[in-house]
Task: inverse folding
């Protein structure tokens, strides 16, 4: 599975989104009162450790270029991780992931507000249908802090994705990921110290599993988008919601209701139609490294996936 053909790239994205859901499962298995900041610190630290073997790919001439925008994205990412933990430990796996899918919709809205981009009629439908779908899934009686946290995670993903344009073009994706986690660790450590929770070895296991599988997701995304245009395969990212429903149903006994199915359809279908429309308009061609600053990461986030969360 080199990702050099559309079919292999789609398969990579399907596998990658399954890995992202396994990362979510490690978080969901945490106790409801688990120390959130301790988990966030350990996950960020372990992700940085997993990236160390790739340190030779860093561009030392531009090591700290764009430091301010990197620092801002890093701390938004940290806030997104904290929100994601709260959401996953208190909501059904599929419900939390359905809300995370608000991120690509929010990206469209933010692109209009910040960069004066124009939305197509289908994009406008996707925005309104997506927000309506979220309301259908949640219903006013189920609106609580966990839901607010899930929306916060989606906002963090969207803001980080939009801010990618401000990052230095000469820095590779590995460079951006590495710098992101270097800048996150001090703030995460300070929050963990402030939290004052006693050391819990189970947190280390959950953090390691979550970090490893979300990094695996990032690798599959990089391979998938390396040779094939994003608009040809990005609709495969939405298989993540199918994984969320399946794993939530089998592993946690979370049976989706009609409200969830209807709302998820309203969120995902317009986004898939946008991807298919771009795919029809753009013939397959080789990947142009200059045309992409950073591989999409869970927008579809998880990011998680902006950097996948």
Result:
């Amino acid at each position: 599975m080199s990702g050099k053909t559309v079919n292999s790239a789609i398969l990579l994205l399907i596998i990658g989104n399954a890995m992202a859901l396994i990362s979510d499962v490690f978080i969901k298995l945490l106790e409801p009162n688990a120390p959130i900041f301790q988990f966030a610190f350990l996950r960020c630290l372990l992700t940085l450790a997993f990236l160390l073997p790739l340190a030779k790919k860093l561009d030392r001439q531009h090591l700290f270029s764009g430091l301010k925008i990197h620092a801002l994205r890093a701390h938004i990412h940290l806030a997104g991780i904290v929100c994601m933990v709260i959401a996953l430990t208190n909501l059904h796996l599929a419900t939390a992931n359905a809300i995370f899918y608000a991120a690509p919709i929010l990206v469209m809205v933010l692109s209009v507000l910040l960069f004066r981009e124009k939305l197509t009629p289908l994009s406008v439908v996707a925005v309104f249908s997506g927000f309506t779908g979220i309301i259908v899934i949640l219903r006013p009686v189920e609106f609580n802090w966990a839901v607010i946290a899930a929306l916060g995670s989606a906002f963090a993903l969207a803001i980080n994705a939009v801010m990618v344009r401000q990052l230095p073009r000469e820095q590779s994706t590995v460079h951006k990921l590495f710098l992101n986690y270097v800048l996150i660790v001090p703030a995460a450590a300070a929050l963990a110290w402030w939290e004052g929770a006693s050391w819990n070895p189970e947190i280390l296991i959950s953090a390691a599993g979550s970090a490893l599988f979300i990094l695996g997701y990032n690798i599959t995304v990089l391979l998938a988008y390396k040779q094939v245009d994003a608009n040809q395969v990005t609709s495969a990212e939405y298989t993540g919601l199918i994984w969320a429903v399946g794993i939530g149903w089998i592993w946690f006994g979370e049976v989706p209701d009609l409200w969830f199915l209807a709302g998820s359809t309203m969120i995902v279908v317009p986004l898939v139609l946008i991807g298919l429309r771009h795919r029809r308009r753009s013939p397959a061609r080789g990947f142009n490294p200059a045309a992409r600053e950073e591989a999409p990461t869970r927008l579809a986030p998880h990011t998680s996936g902006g950097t996948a969360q």
Summary: The chain has one domain: 6-291.
